[in-house]
């Protein structure tokens, strides 16, 4: 049987995504123990707080044993090839989950089709974060179809996956980014094809958040972009989420951030620490997202297309 992989949120159709969300929202006891007496390999080329803890605990809750390995320990394409690493791990583990710098590494892992591959973050996508974001918004608002979600700042890997997930829920998508830092025409077309109610791209953060139920932001400088820090801080100086920006959003709008956050840079302390912030709930939803995704992959349920 060809294993299923979860590398991009966009690999799923609306029915598959709804089934995945349902698994994430299901009580843990209803998922059984599909990883009983089985291991899950966790490869981390990048440091992590939420991803490591949520994934390890999710594996344990499903009856399995997580094995955490730092990038320098496994040495992808340094000590041995990506293909050799995954081929060997497939003999020990039910699933290989990896947090990598280069998304092409995940593509190479999945191309072997020897074990399900779960993307824990790459430079292109962060599917588990997008699922946690949807879970958080559903907890707050219920059905998301027809509601508006806004992203302000750099349209990065987190934003891309969020918009794909929100599109699968039938939401209106709005992005406020400086010229050259927003979604590409391919990103917009993908979201439209996935079922977005509409996609709006603007350089005005106030226009982006107007009427939104949730305003999302991320750091201006992500891991690997430190050399461009000074330039990026200048480019994004007018894209900080403060009380004025939140006032433009809907009266019931919430603020969301994948964390870690830099108070005073992409968001002011009064917003991220204020009553409209849901960042801690959002972080806790990462456990539900990981558990649901692992349960689906471990149970050989339909998830994405056959390779």
What does the model show?
- With 307 residues, the protein is α/β, with parallel strands linked by helices.
- The protein has two domains: 9-126 and 286-298, Rossmann fold (3-Layer(aba) Sandwich); 129-283, Rossmann fold, CATH 3.40.50.
- The protein contains 13 helices and nine strands.
- The strands form two sheets. The chain has a five-stranded parallel beta sheet with strand order 7-6-5-8-9. The protein has a four-stranded parallel beta sheet with strand order 2-1-3-4, with helices on both faces.
- Strand 1, helix 2 (50-61) and strand 2 form a beta-alpha-beta unit.
- The chain starts with 13 loop residues before the first helix and ends in a 9-residue tail after the last helix.
Give a brief description.
The protein contains 13 helices and nine strands. It is an alpha/beta fold.
